[in-house]
Specification:
Rossmann fold, EC 2.7.1.90 (chains A, B), homodimer, PPi-PFK (chains A, B), 38% helix, cytoplasm (chains A, B), four-stranded parallel β-sheet
């Protein structure tokens, strides 16, 4: 019996736990008797067409466990989205190296890559098992309760807003925090989990699932500021006007687009700065501060959900088990089975590939600027254990002497 | 014997551990037999002139311990810097309430406030013990080995750059991270502690202690990018040209100044965005991303140095002990006594007030864009225990088949 040859790669934006999935694949594959070699492609599909492979069979289990704990993509990643010609090159390389199983860890663009490669192999009658392993901080893969990487990024956002709220309470003013998420507002909505006391921020949350209107925004901020003497705001980078034009894109001097035709929304502070300027100019509030969470929210080392780590590891392991037992290609999906427990399924690639999930209506409050309890119930277990908590002094006012009230 | 009446307040920018100092004062003061009441002023000196006091004698020790673990200023803060007239109002309120001991937790502006109030009381022959308790993420107080708040902010910056470096290695390009610190580069320099492997970033560090030259900056970035195929850069918000003009201020449309006459450098992403645009335009590098760490670096909940927590608590406790035993006003200072151990001193207020420490030359590499081992030795113990570590896959390249090298 000739031994199988595994290839694993990582695509798209890194997450805090994508290496858990990588290590899940490698350790589970090395455990299979029919597996001879486990290769990793450096920098995703680009590494495949360049034959830029490393032999993961030679890596120690001990170092693999340490790499699993390390954020970002240990094999490197890519933003390339293969078309038919690109996939043909992939196919030729896989054939030349005798690869029998291809695992690609990534988001919906990556799942589409796996679909194309799978179809290419089938059309050429080349026996190749193709499995997509979910990963995205945006939580926008269909067919999944949630996606690995999202819980840890959500935890960062919740902790960031919990802290920003405390800072804003000490030095009152308006604070705008811009969060990643082009089409899906899940990560921005996670800011709501940073709230504890009734008057805590974020007081307003703007999601890409709702049309953003600058005048309404200013009215919301004004009302909140008048009520609390301060205002903490969570804004998705993907907010857009009624025509679908991103607010951020309206401001950018040069529209940078990636290979998928997407406008570059992250990596600059333009949206936060514009919104702050509008608030200063139109509402006359002096202390207005804006932060763009940028790459910190997906790359910060030392803010991870243990639930996310565990599930990211398991989707990697399950991918290998499905590859050898399910008899078909597919995309591994997380299903919620209890509160809180999960199980894993293998979905057809066509059910996931290239599709985008957005926040369900039941998760968004009628106001359009808050989340519902259903969302809090959904997200809380994903954030994991040991979430920091904020405490306050209780009010014990002292009577005034010089100016008694 | 009439019982003493304590007043404690927090000024300036919040930190992750400023409530440790507050709780150190309160618990130690409540332990003293001669103390009757412990008041807190809400929002610093502004709360004093408004007689906005809370009675901390009524707070539970249990809740105080939980508040101590919570970042930001639990009493609220202010940016007010009292002049003689303002201090006179403070004095009148302290007199009216029979305050005998005044503790103010803050940076060099706050220490100057304590100095003025102390002199005002002495001139009026009013018996008032005034103690300044150090706090600043900028680490720019003279007479201190370091200041409470700095180690936790430094830990955030080190962890942020460790993660940004991993992200940048996965998707290579140029990354610019802008760090707080108007005059002192300590916090920006802390980014160097995020490095582990020889080719890790930050590859370039720009401090306010050195003149920033845009052409030299671009040459540095170009050389690094050519060497490593990527470049991670740490930049202080306080970088300035040879005339002392801040690079950030050159860009800001409206120069917002606080009551101390300082230009507002934080709270927008302008500096990062300008530097990124320059790199794109002049060096023709496509993937250039900038983040401004903003308020996250001082307010993030869940990233704290245990060493910082301990010392912040102790400076509060020591302040009370000095107040009752030293027989003079002053500013509590941290002295390094071993590697690593500290002791505390009471410095004269005039030795600290209004002065600014910057990074010592021995901490800055000759290149001007890196730190020295002396700085690494200085900073490492302050970051505390449990610092996350990054691991890599070892290179085990697979021979190419289609295009053998």
């Amino acid at each position: 019996m000739s031994l199988c040859k595994i290839l694993v790669a990582q695509g798209g934006g890194p997450t805090a736990v994508i290496n858990q999935s990588l290590v899940g694949v490698v350790l589970e594959a090395r455990r299979q008797h029919q597996v001879g070699l486990v290769y990793g492609a450096r920098h995703g599909v680009r590494g495949i067409i360049n034959e830029d492979f490393v032999d993961l069979t030679q890596e120690t289990s001990h170092n693999l466990e340490l790499v699993a704990q390390t954020p970002s993509s240990a094999l490197g990643s890519t933003r390339d989205k293969p078309d038919a010609a690109y996939c043909h090159k992939i196919f030729k390389v896989l054939q030349a190296h005798g690869i029998t199983h291809f695992f690609y860890i990534g988001g919906n663009d990556s799942s589409d890559t796996v679909r194309i490669v799978s179809e290419e192999a089938a059309a050429a009658s080349y026996p190749l098992r193709c499995i997509h392993i979910p990963k995205t901080i945006d939580n926008d893969l269909v067919g999944n309760d949630h996606t690995p990487g999202f819980p840890s990024a959500a935890r960062f956002v919740a902790q960031a807003f919990a802290g920003a709220n405390l800072d804003n309470a000490a030095l009152p003013g308006v604070y705008v925090g811009v969060v990643m998420g082009r089409h899906a507002g899940f990560l921005t909505a996670a800011s709501a989990l940073g709230k504890k006391f009734p008057d805590d921020g974020p007081h307003l949350i703007y999601l890409p699932e709702r049309v953003f209107d600058l005048q309404q925004f200013l009215a919301d901020v004004k009302a909140t500021y008048e009520r609390f003497g301060r205002c903490v705001i969570a804004v998705s980078e993907g907010i857009h006007d009624a025509s679908g034009q991103p607010i951020a894109a309206q401001l950018a001097r040069d529209l940078e687009r990636d290979d998928h035709g997407n406008v570059q929304l992250s990596g600059n502070g333009a949206l936060a700065d514009l919104l702050c300027e509008e608030i200063k100019d139109k509402l006359g509030i002096k202390r207005v501060r804006g932060d763009t969470f940028g790459y910190l929210q997906r790359s910060f080392i030392g803010c991870v959900s243990d639930v996310d780590q565990r599930e990211a590891r398991e989707v990697g392991e399950k991918a290998v088990q499905f590859a050898f037992n399910a008899g078909r290609d597919g995309s591994v999906a997380i299903k919620r089975s209890g509160y809180y427990s999960v199980d894993y399924e293998l979905l057809p690639l066509t059910a996931v590939a290239g599709k985008t999930r957005v926040m369900e209506d039941e998760f968004i409050a009628a106001s359009g600027t808050d989340v519902t309890d259903a969302f809090r119930l959904y997200l809380r277990p994903l954030l994991g254990s040991g979430l920091p908590d904020a405490f306050r002094l209780r009010p014990n006012p002292v009577a005034k002497v010089l100016n008694p009230e």
